[in-house]
Amino acid sequence: MPVDIRRYFIEEAKFLHSNLKQNKLSVSLIDAPYQRFEGHKIRVVNVRNPEWYSSMYQRYFHFRRDRSLNALERLRKSEDNPFRINPYKYDMRFREEIFERLIEGYETEYFSCGKILWNPPNETVREFFGIKKLERMFG
Fold first, then answer.
1. pLDDT tens by residue, 50-95
2. Are 32 and 121 in contact, with CB atoms under 8 Å apart?
3. Rg value, the chain, Cα
4. β-bridge mates for residue 115, sequence order
5. Is 114 helix (H, G, I), strand (E, B) or coil?
6. How many other C-beta atoms are found inside a 10 Å radius of the C-beta of residue 97?
7. Residue 125 CB coordination number (10 Å)
8. Global confidence as pTM
9. For the segment 98-123, what is each residue's pLDDT rounded down to a tens digit?
10. Are strands 41-47 and 26-31 parallel, antiparallel or unpaired?
11. Is the CA virtual torsion 119, 121, 123, 124 positive or negative?
12. For residue 49, how many other CB atoms are within 10 A of its CB?
């Protein structure tokens, strides 16, 4: 890919890597609001995995966080490898995920403030891959 297009993939890989590293599922036990027995506790989520990671985790059998972080690290350094059996299938899966995010747009959830922001498709990437320009939805 040309340098200007590759730059968008690298930036997205950096974002995904940072997002995955900062948001690891964390749960804790608290007293249940309605005690059914002595010492009754319930689990509450402190920190959630990013939505995009949860989706990939459900899509692929034995999807691993450590291999995901390693693949994203390779992608952000432009050291990703062609598809093979293990572990480089993660590189391919993340290239596909980044491609979809860039051409379709995506929502980003900011856990600290509870906001969800829409990131529109990247028209430069869409044009490079010969994908028709999107019509603006609101004029």
1. 999 999 999 988 899 999 999 999 999 988 776 666 656 889 999 9
2. no
3. 19
4. 110
5. coil
6. 21
7. 20
8. 0.81
9. 999 999 999 887 766 678 889 999 99
10. antiparallel
11. positive
12. 18
Residue 45 in 3-state DSSP? strand
* DSSP at 44: E
Distances in Å between the Cα of 1 and the Cα atoms of 8, 78, 85, 128 are: 11, 11, 23, 9
Helix (H) or strand (E) holding 77: none
Give the C-alpha separation, 115 to 118, whole Å. 10
Question: Nearest 5°: phi and psi at 124?
Answer: -65, -45
Residue with structure tokens 């598809």? 83
- Cα separation, 13 vs 70, in Å, equals 11
The crossing angle, in degrees rounded to 10, of helices 89-104 and 65-76 is: 70
Quote the longest CA-to-CA distance of the chain: 64
